[in-house]
Amino acid sequence: AKHIVSLSIGWETYHDYLSFTGRLDLINRYHELAKVIGEFTNEDPDLVIAKSLEGSSNVRDAWNKTTPSTPEQVRAFYGEDDNGYLYDLLSWNCQPIYQRLLDQLKPYSGYKVLVIGAGLGVEAELLADNGNEVDVYDLPGVLRNFCRYRIGDKVGVLSGNTLHDAPITPGTYDIIVAFDVLEHVHPDEFPAFMRRVREIMTDDGTLHHHNNWKQ
Fold first, then answer.
1. 0.85 exceeded by the pTM?
2. Is 84 exposed, middle or buried (0-12, 13-18, 19+ CB in 10 A)?
3. How does pLDDT run across 143-162, given as a tens digit for each residue?
4. How far is the C-alpha of 117 from the C-alpha of 180, rounded, in Å?
């Protein structure tokens, strides 16, 4: 037989639970990022949080309005200020699954690292704070601009309309991080994109990636 147990606890016990499970750190990150996004977009943090609660629908709705199809249109979409991606990423960056991805990066120190897909700069900041030399590449537009705004003093933010255009010497990076990036590359450009990734890695380099192909 299965049993359902209900237990009433006080605020201090609940706070201890949040700390023990690591969720308090995620909550704090959520509010800190919401504040910075609000400063960047000139919005009240409460409005930023309200938008983030819509999750991936922020991007899906913006995508459905323009329905980009060509590689050029897809790249342009991800650079637009109103593509909803900042709010989608705020929600994603504060999920336990994302924290588990970050945990994979914590052991690295003293490496030359490229983060493809700026996101909100959380991966690049963690790696830089751990003593790595970090560059970030993203498409021209809102996410690249936000990364430069938030942590540009800690990392190199690379230019280039595509990864092929970025000023990178072959064999440069020991580690490349591409969390939830590859699924956004247009199929027509995917093979060349992956060849470029291999080209700019060292011979024994490591690629860390996570992808949601279903979504």
1. yes
2. buried
3. 999 999 999 999 999 999 99
4. 8
